[in-house]
Amino acid sequence: MKKTTLTFEASVLQNAQLDSISKEMLFNAAQTQVVKQGDYLLTEGQICQHIWLVEKGACRAFYDNNHKEINTAFFFEQAFITNMKSLRNNEPSLYHLQAIEATTLLRWRKEELTALYQQSSAIAAYGTAQLEQLAITSEAHADWLKVLNPEERYEYILQHQPQLVQRVSITQLSSYIGISRETLSRIRRRVL
């Protein structure tokens, strides 16, 4: 097996119940992609053709609502990224995926993953589990936006996703929480 990256070792090799051949097949199918802060992995209207794993750096998912960016997800080291609906249904993306830091990723093309899924049921099961985790994370965000008040949302972030406070701009964080930048500033002063 080739020398692996730390993220691949930590997120795939350690956590996946894959035999050594399946692990090697999955790793060999990956390409390294390096992007600068502000570069797009996917833009609205494009059809998603990849699944990415963040090796180093950070990315976000967002859409434009009347010239206002609404952030819906953030991805850090060891996180998988894709637009599942676009990837699966071969339809245009409704949102953007963008690097918010200089980022190194591992990238798998849809066709290569499909072939791997056919060759290894263990890889197919692992891929399904990762996509389910993306869906669960997205659903959890939608749920707490509905049931928590703004201060409770910020406290949730502090407890469960502190890297957001450390690595995401206050403007991006406020849209993710579903409040104005000014409201978030007031909440931060009260909470701290």
TrEMBL record:
InterPro entries: cNMP-bd_dom (IPR000595), cNMP-bd_dom_sf (IPR018490), RmlC-like_jellyroll (IPR014710). It comes from the Bacteria. Residues 34-119 form the Cyclic nucleotide-binding domain. Pfam families: cNMP_binding. This is Crp/Fnr family transcriptional regulator. It comes from Chitinophaga flava.
